[in-house]
Amino acid sequence: MEVINTNEAKYDRKAELQAFDETKAGVKGLVDAGITKVPRIFVQPSTIEDSTIHSNKNFSFPIIDFDGIKEDLIKRKKIVQEVGQASETWGFFQVINHGIPSHVLEGMTDGVIRFFEQDTEVKKQWYTRDFIKVFQYNSNFDLFGAPVTNWRDTFTAIIAPTSPNPEILPSVCRDILLEYTNQVMELGDTLFKLLSEAIGLEPNHLKDMDCTKGLFALGHYYPACPQPEITPGTSKHADNDFLTVLLQDNIGGLQVLHQNHWVDVPPTPGALVINIGDILQASSVTFSIPVSETYLSLITCLISNDKFKSVEHRVLANKIGPRVSMACFFTTGLLPTQKLYGPIKELISEHNPPKYRETTIKEYSTYFTNKGMDGTSALLHFRL
After folding, report:
1. What is the per-residue pLDDT for 1?
2. Residue ranges of the Fe2OG dioxygenase domain (predicted)?
3. Of 45, 158, 317, 324, whose Cβ has the fewest other Cβ atoms within 10 Å?
């Protein structure tokens, strides 16, 4: 006689996801309720991560010092080389002396905490899954599509190309959010010039491709987890933008997949973490049919035709918390653009043919959003 697992038979994942979503309290709401075990929707299947990949502490994560970048041409040339090498080999690096004052960095971290730790009933007014809203808060953008729910709550804000009306932003983090993202936009201008030069192009090449025009800000809140060994903070993924600038606190947990090893990104006081996104790995620009709607897309590795690497990364859950971070995605997905993105023409030759097909922002963002963070790369879908 076949034995039926009654617990398995009674498990209705969709219903549990719906019930969790309807609380509008996120993961923090579970922790506030005093849970001691992770709900089943957060339990990571053994197949979701490659068990043969282990953490490795023997790698030295690249840190690049921007001190003197504007005054000293010799230092600047060295920085260009360092940025290029890190982007080709790691796809990630940290920058120090980047020009954003420490009080602004600390203020932004505090602003994320203030938002998520305000009264739940006040916070609920921002809870939505309407991705075109200028400001929104929810838990897991891919809640109903991903194979596992991440131990993380998030707010998002569309910062550029159109500056948000301050009145529609939460007062608890409004001023610092606008100040911090304004300075990130300035840093982005510098970063894209360095990347253009590192790839052998004129300094303004990537800027002229609209890489600096759009900015999408995400504040992440990872509550302390009672069973961090069985659930992810953020599942393995690569960013689908041009470039990401990440501010993380001192708790740690971010890991990068490098040479088939998970490598910790050490929290460094005053540093920002920079990583290449999918579209920058792969793209050039031509014109397509008009795109009449605004889409949220996060695209980067296509542009460089694999010269730069958009690398998979993840965040581990932790018994210590909350961990907070602020990720700023440079993306043209918020523009009503007519452009197609594909490998830059200047980088293509008989010996270096294009590795990706051109794609519209709509197509890429729709594919990425529908796929969710399922542990696979969205770039594979666009590979020639």
Report:
1. 40
2. 213-333
3. 45
Mean pLDDT of 127-136: 92
Work out the average pLDDT over 323-346. 73
Lowest mean per-residue pLDDT among 21-35, 198-212, 360-374: 360-374
Confidence class for position 374, pLDDT limits 50, 70, 90? low
Amino acid in position 55: S
The answer to whether 358 touches 286, Cβ cutoff 8 Å, is yes
pLDDT in tens, 266-282: 999 999 999 998 777 64
Which CATH number does the domain housing residue 107 bear?
2.60.120.330
Task: Give which of 238, 103, 254 is closest to 183, Cα–Cα.
Answer: 103
Which burial class, exposed, middle or buried, applies to 178 when counting CB atoms under 10 A from its CB (0-12, 13-18, 19+)?
Answer: middle
Q: Which pair of tokens denotes residue 353?
A: 């043919």
Q: How far is CA 343 from the centre of its chain?
A: 22
Instruction: Please give the model's pTM, rounded to 2 decimal places.
Output: 0.83
**Beta-sheet strand order (sheet of 323-330):** 63-65, 92-96, 272-276, 243-248, 323-330, 215-222, 153-160, 135-138
Alpha carbon distance, N-terminus to C-terminus of the chain: 51
For residue 288, the model assigns a pLDDT of: 31
Which of the four pLDDT bands, split at 50, 70 and 90, describes residue 286? Answer: very low
CA dihedral angle for residue 351, residue 310, residue 104, residue 70, rounded to 10 degrees: -10
4 within a domain of the structure (yes/no): no
Structure tokens at 211: 């890489």
Q: Which domain holds residue 147?
A: 14-43+54-382
**How far is Cα 157 from Cα 177, in angstroms, rounded to an integer?**
9
- Compute CA distances 184 → 100, 108, 295, 298, whole Å: 8, 12, 22, 16
